[in-house]
Amino acid sequence: MYKQTLLETRQRISSFVHNTPVLTSHLLDDKSGAKLFFKCENFQKMGAFKMRGATNAIIQLSKEQQERGVVTHSSGNFAQALSLAAKNLGVNAYIVMPDNAPKVKEDAVLGYGGNITKCESNIQAREEAATQIVSEKGATFIHPSNDLNVILGNATAGMELLEAHPDLNCVLTPVGGGGLLAGTALAAHYFGTQCKAIGGEPMLVDDAFRSLQSGKIETNTTGNTIADGLRTHLGDINFPILQQYVDHIIRVEEDEIIKAMRLLWERLKIVVEPSSAVAFAAILKNKAYFKGKKVGVILSGGNVDLDTLRFS
Amino acid sequence: MYKQTLLETRQRISSFVHNTPVLTSHLLDDKSGAKLFFKCENFQKMGAFKMRGATNAIIQLSKEQQERGVVTHSSGNFAQALSLAAKNLGVNAYIVMPDNAPKVKEDAVLGYGGNITKCESNIQAREEAATQIVSEKGATFIHPSNDLNVILGNATAGMELLEAHPDLNCVLTPVGGGGLLAGTALAAHYFGTQCKAIGGEPMLVDDAFRSLQSGKIETNTTGNTIADGLRTHLGDINFPILQQYVDHIIRVEEDEIIKAMRLLWERLKIVVEPSSAVAFAAILKNKAYFKGKKVGVILSGGNVDLDTLRFS
Q: Which of B5, B16, B193, B252 shows its CA 20 to 30 Å from the CA of B158?
């Protein structure tokens, strides 16, 4: 039922996003035992796949809605994405950010013309601040991951990957809020050939893994993973999509994430976020499963704070 | 006189090296005031332009010479390049490395099948160790930068860049031993349209700048720059080429190199060595000169030791 919608979505946002390159590496193939195709969303505009969903969500608003602006709460990449997508479309963006957000991400939001409202770093404070902006400005709230238009926009990364490499056996993404994995699972279902969608998730915030097991949306008690983009939980719009279209989720430890990220930096010579390395870490952890398969990996973004990042 | 030789060189090594991508960035254009074209030799095989010169130098040896192997002394990238190029061509490579070389580079040489001989970290010890291998094995010594076939091989990066963007006003490279700048200057002269070749050099090891001023090969008393690939000095083969074909050399301070490298990592989302950032730092330091110009920048390599690299 989504095939035509996905094709229209890709057409709709194509002039606002990059068709990002797909990198390969003999050395990483040797290390994993699989044939890997890395879809480099770190090279996407503003440095992450979230540009895709944000752009689609704003374009799908009515003219009247666009004139009143958009609002979101985000710990980072979606804040930048909504700011830049809004700027490209002549729309105001109001961004609620936790007061402990990395400075590099805050500066980027300001650079893209977003209007920042700071709040305490908890979900209740964020939602209250966003609700207040909705009522004051008449702005439309756009959720970073639990929004169908965001999910459909995110799906276009997987569509491009499968257009370039139609015979992938599976495609992996990190899973945090669930928006990228849901979109990618739709892309795999409608544009792959028996292509499985698989998630990679930090063990420390394994809510998505537990949600698929229990059949209801689970949350995390702690969120202290290096993969800071993956600390959120699923929502009622993306969860049914994950239930229907995702094959399984693989959990990885923190040291496995760092080791995988280091391999990507050293061997592909690209800057990727810890969250991006989670899907690759899942492959390295399950070599027997992926052995000999053609595996797509969506590297979700490349916005890191070089001041704080340490490999040792 | 070199035009046909350069075309033959490019043909000769084409199946052994990547035609690396050229990246652009609106943000870095805005920051510099120029239109920048980054030739990404960090994506070259073994992670640096040196693969080009090493491959050409080995292919140009006779069968008998190839059978006895090749030897060089190098603090890093040329050691890897000669090892991999030799492996690709079925030749033995003997590598003299200083005992303080980064472990990541030593491991890479071993990974590419090179045979390492350790020596003290001074030029005399290196040359003695190399001479001993030449006399024992009958191997041919190949200098990392002061060898015409190496220079001609290096030139192919600039040739590819100018083929993709023929109207560059100038092209910049870092200058250490002089092999990349010499090759690039030849490429600019024979394949550009009034395209100037400009070097970027750390102030701490500004021997090339001083050599062009004095008319003779100068050396450095200290070598403590973060751009560890640039601590060497010019040679009698590349110096005349630099004198004839290089427009000028711009010197940059250590903090300017680190700032430039950080911009490349953060904005292009790529991993480049400090040496690679020196040419970009030269542009940022001389914005008035480069304003409005189309400027090629050869990013020389991406082999960094993530354990020791710090931005703050």
A: B252
